[in-house]
Amino acid sequence: MLLTVNQDNHRTVIAADGEIDLSTSGQLDDAVVEALGQETSHLTLDLSEVTFLDSSGLGVIVKALKRAKEAGTVFDVVAANDRVLKVFKLTGLDAVVEIYPTLDGVPGQ
Fold first, then answer.
1. Please, what is the Cα angle at 53 between 76 and 58, to 5 degrees?
2. Number of domains in the chain
3. Burial class, 26, CB count within 10 angstroms (exposed 0-12 / middle 13-18 / buried 19+)
4. Residue 59 and residue 22 in contact, taking contact as beta carbons nearer than 8 Å
5. Is residue 57 assigned to a domain?
6. What is the SS3 assignment for 59?
7. pLDDT score of 70
8. Where does the pLDDT of residue 106 fall: very low under 50, low under 70, confident under 90, or very high at 90 and above?
9. What is the pTM of this model?
10. Residue 109: inside a domain, yes or no?
């Protein structure tokens, strides 16, 4: 998995490319912790290039949501891959996380 972090005007976008699984989810978690530690007001996880997401990746997303709420940070996800979207729907995570089909669709981007 390749991670790219872009921060601009207290908005952070963490873009992941590839597979998020047990061997890579820690990298994503570290990036989330670092972004929230810099007092970002809006955190977006861009998963549009993610090809696989397992339960450890979902765990990172759930923790990111919780941490963002505690920090008063807006949190959302960009997901376009049908497999990734299906995981969100099957777990009910789509009901608690705002999901957008493209980064351009995220308010304020």
1. 55
2. 1
3. exposed
4. no
5. yes
6. helix
7. 95
8. very high
9. 0.94
10. no
Token duo for residue 99: 């999901």
Match 């989810």 to its residue by tokens: 25
The verdict on residue 84 lying in a domain is: yes
State the pLDDT at residue 78.
97
CA distance linking residue 20 with residue 64, whole number of Å = 14
Residue 55's pLDDT is 92
- Is the separation of the CB atoms in 1 and 27 below 8 Å? yes
Looking up residue 66, the CATH number of its domain turns out to be 3.30.750.24
Distances from the Cα of 15 to the Cαs of 7, 26, 40, 46, 54, in angstroms? Answer: 11, 14, 15, 4, 17
Whether the CB-CB separation of 32 and 3 falls below 8 Å is answered with no
Q: Are 46 and 79 in contact (CB under 8 A)?
A: no
